[in-house]
Amino acid sequence: MSEDAKPVQPSRPRREWLLPLFLALATSAWMLAVEGHQGIGRDESQYFRAGERYWGWVESTVKEIGKGHFASAFSRGAVDAAWDDNHEHPSLMKLLYGASWRAFHTCDCTGPKRGLHPIPITGKHATLPLFKRESSAFRFPAILLAGLGVALVYWLARRVLQPLPSAVAAVLSVAQPHYFFHAQISCFDVPITVMAVLVALAYWKSLRSPRWGILCGVFWGLALATKHNAWLFPFFLLPHYLWIRRRDLLRLRPPRIPLVFVSMATIGPVVLFVLWPWLWHSPVDRARGWLVRHTQHEHYNFEYLGRNWNLPPKETDRKLLRMTFPFVSTLITVPVTTLALAGIGTVLFLRRRRRTAEARLSNPGSRENRVFVDEGPTAAHASWIRPGIDVDLSPGVFLAIHIAGPIALIALPSTPIFGGVKHFLPAMPFFCVVAGAGAAWLVQFARRLFSPLRFRGALPASLAVLLCLPAVAETQRSHPDGLGHYNLLAGGFAGGASLGMNRQFWGYSALPILPWMIAHRPTSNRIYWHDVLHDAITMYQRDGRLPIGVGDAGVGENVVEQSDLGILILEKHFTVYEGLEWQAYQTTKPSSVYAHEGVPFVVGYERKPQPPRPEQP
Amino acid sequence: MLLALVETVNAFVAPALAPSEKDWRAAAAEVRAGFQPGDLIVAAPAWSDSLMRVQLGDLVPMPIAGRMDAGRFGRIWEISQRGARAAETQSAQMAATSRHGRLSVKLWQKPAARVAFDFLSQWQKASLSVSTPDRGELPCWMAQAKFQCGEGTSLGPELLEIDTALRNGLAIDPHERTITVLEYSDVPFGRELAVAAGLHNVWLRKSGDGKVHLRVLADGRELGAVDAGSLSGWSVRRFDTSGLAGRQGKVRFEITVDKAHGRHFGFAAEARNP
User: Fold this and answer.
1) Which residue of B has its CA nearest to A488?
2) What is the mean pLDDT of residues B128-154?
3) pLDDT digits (tens, 9 = 90+) for A285-303
């Protein structure tokens, strides 16, 4: 089909699958190629541990059932023994991480590392040893899911855009330094973002297909079992549904409850319950505990515009400043070209909103119509299983809600911001679909500009590559410290640091300084690891990146004095620990610093032998 | 499209614009060659401080690194990048500059404040007492390198984290309904009395919301006060004592708090001639 003035024709199925499949595989391959450079954060190390425990429970339960001990296998004690671990987050991803580790690690588990596992190791594991490092095996599902996420963004974008701009949207969705950082690790932030796209896509399709209405309930259940952000998804879908059925509301005729919401309300919780054994013996109390935990979450320390934020602000000026956080963060973390494309796309969606489907069909050659694929009404009357068949589906409103929803929540001064960009990552795929529209317009513009030239045929693909290139280059540049990366507007790593923006969190950045620590390991073996959790130290040992038995002086201010070597993760609120290390080691001079583009992330101090006292005369 | 090209080129070029270790070593060698006792070395922007200390930390010992302010330093070496300028060099004149790769070394000069009396380093010459409505004024005593008082108050020098920077100061956990009085006799006055104060420890600042009030009196006359709350940072105030300059007299610091929970208060002061 020509992308010019002709009416939109269905794309070839091959293109609909091959292009997103290629993008997904390329994304996962990119992450697999580089994930080994990224250290292990506090949260990820706990999910490793919990994942291994959960999978250990699956294996032991299968064995128990095999022996006929059905009741004891599912007893409260047996279930809670495994699932109590890290029960503030649901199970799905941790279970997948554990399963992947079990299936794909290279097992030397019966050797000296036997004691480093959270579950008893009874023998050598039979595995398909795809990964040398155990942490890579844990991370594999997250990486695959990130690849799937790119394909889903493509398919979501295809609801409104042609294939090429949809591919641009898909690439831009992953080619963001902060997104990329979170995508390759065994955490939940990108998985729940992928789930947000999955649920949104299923909902969109459910407006005209009952099959997707049922599936959406299943997908929402999977999302609930991934992370608590899923609680919000209905609040993004319902306003859209009311918007497309606004004529019913204006006629004081409430729209019917569509199948998709019935499905989400019934199937979703069942899927969550089935996938999360922690709920099995006390579903109401524990679900309530889960809710309370995340609606009353502590405000951890986080640097924003040179200030340390760790409480909800009380003063009006601080509240206003705090409310700018997600907007400013988006402005200076997303690659600038992506921002510019999203700006163009926003204008296009606003213009599209003012036109009816009929008008678009009557003037198919208009600029907007060459950008957007038309999904106008296809029937005169809707039903509860096809509730959007008779109306325009208002993709602009749909995307706007999914972008504004997560960002608005983080803009509330009462919401913690300690996760930085990751707390509103679910907005980003939708943001990139809007950017895809901007790319579509630019492609059309360039084709008109260069219409007499012979290379016109190669122009769209070349332009698409050009528009994706800065985002990909910035993302690669940022690795493995994507959290500390800021875009061209901010001035990169150094510019972000000078603006007083957060550089990192949860101690992931220790990895590059490990060789120095090994080389300078004190004979006392008393090492202070600061913000690096013991579980992370354990995984570094299992990965062969630290010697077995490397010391860990523990946590807290009072253990620094007892250590002979220590590191400091450079975050604004950790200065107090630097003071403790100065006093413990009697020096202000670090022995080692890890910096990215000249911006320090971790410093290492050590207790030097005191010079011999001069002999008494 | 031009933006895409610019951003792509920047992604490849920008990493090369960061100072290298070689640049840092060369800049440090320059500073070390011209360093004189009493000089201050700073990095700009401030986030590059640890990179500077890797090279020159031996010349920035804890008393200097945790300074009250830069008032007493007449010569300031600044290692800067990307055109940044350290706050300590404000009002100073540049005396020399050199370039080392991506780093600049600048020697700044300004009239140094002559410190007539450093209340922090001379803390053992002071007397401490606590005064409560019930029990009146009770003297404290020296034990384990600190003043100790009967109702649990103690005061002594510490390296403190105030406003996420390290400061040397006299530290105290003040009690409610108690006035803690630190008094110095025979203080040689200068033309100003500089007092800086704040609250230690990011988690303590988070856990409490009380305000510590430090009242400063010279020879019985109130010069002013400094308040320290969770968000007040490291407040430096300069009281005019030109009327007392050249004389000796008493300086009294009175410390009170409205809500004591989580308040670990630190302060430093200098009588000086700017």
Assistant:
1) B7
2) 90
3) 999 999 999 999 999 999 9
Rounded to a whole number of angstroms, the distance from the CA of A497 to the nearest CA of chain B is 7
Q: Element (H or E) spanning A492, and its range?
A: helix A492-498
Does the pLDDT value for residue B87 go beyond 80? yes
Token pair, residue B144, equals 């384990």
Spell out the alpha helix ranges (H) of A225-278: 233-244, 246-250, 259-275
Query: How close, in Å, is residue A245 to chain B by CA atoms?
Result: 39
As a whole number of angstroms, the distance between CA A557 and CA A546 comes to 24
| pLDDT at residue B186 tops 70 | yes
User: A575 and B202 in contact by Cβ < 8 A?
Assistant: yes
- String of DSSP letters for B113-169: PEEEEETTTTGGGSEEEEEETTTEEEE-EEETTEEE-TTS-EEEEEEEEETTEEEEE
Report the residue from B84, B161, B166 with minimal CB separation from A498: B84
Question: From B23, which residue of chain A is nearest by alpha-carbon distance?
Answer: A598
Chain B interface, best mutation among A298, A509, A588, by max B CB count within 10 A:
A588
Mean pLDDT of chain A: 93
Nearest CB to A488; choose among B10, B51, B160 = B10
Angle of CA points B224, B230, B236, to nearest 5°: 35
Contact list, B44 vs chain A (CB under 8 Å): none
What is the mean predicted confidence (pLDDT) over B51-57? 98
Query: Residue B97: which H helix or E strand, with range?
Result: strand B93-100
Residue with tokens 């994304």: A27
Cα–Cα dist B241/B218, whole Å = 9
User: The tokens 């920035």 sit on which residue?
Assistant: B60
CB A65 within 8 A of CB A40: no
- Rounded CA-CA distance A360/A283 in Å is 51
Average of per-residue pLDDT across B185-200: 97
- C-alpha closest to that of B271 among B163, B145, B122, B165: B122
Using the Cα atoms of residue A94, residue A197, residue A295 and residue A302 in order, give the sign of their dihedral. positive
Give residue A398's identity as a one-letter amino acid code. Answer: F
Between CA A115 and CA A122, with CA A121 as vertex, the angle to 5 degrees is: 135
pLDDT average, residue stretch B60-74: 97
Task: Please give the helix or strand (H or E) that residue B255 lies within, else none.
Answer: strand B248-257
Answer yes or no: do A590 and B206 touch at CB < 8 A. no
Q: How far apart are CA B188 and CA B228, in angstroms?
A: 27
Residue A362 has pLDDT above 70, yes or no: no
Distance CA A157, CA B9 (A): 28
Q: A206 exposed, middle or buried (CB, 10 Å; 0-12, 13-18, 19+)?
A: buried
- Tens-digit pLDDT profile for residues A418-467: 889 999 999 999 999 999 999 999 999 888 887 766 677 788 899 999 99
Q: pLDDT (tens digit, 9 = 90+) per residue, A247-268?
A: 999 998 888 899 999 999 999 9
Q: Which residues of A89-118 are buried (b: 16+ CB within 10 A; e: fewer)?
A: bbbbbbbbbbbbbbbbbbbebeeebeebbe
In the predicted model, is pLDDT for residue A607 greater than 70? yes
Under DSSP, the state recorded for A426 is G
Instruction: Tokens for B192, please give them.
Output: 């100003």
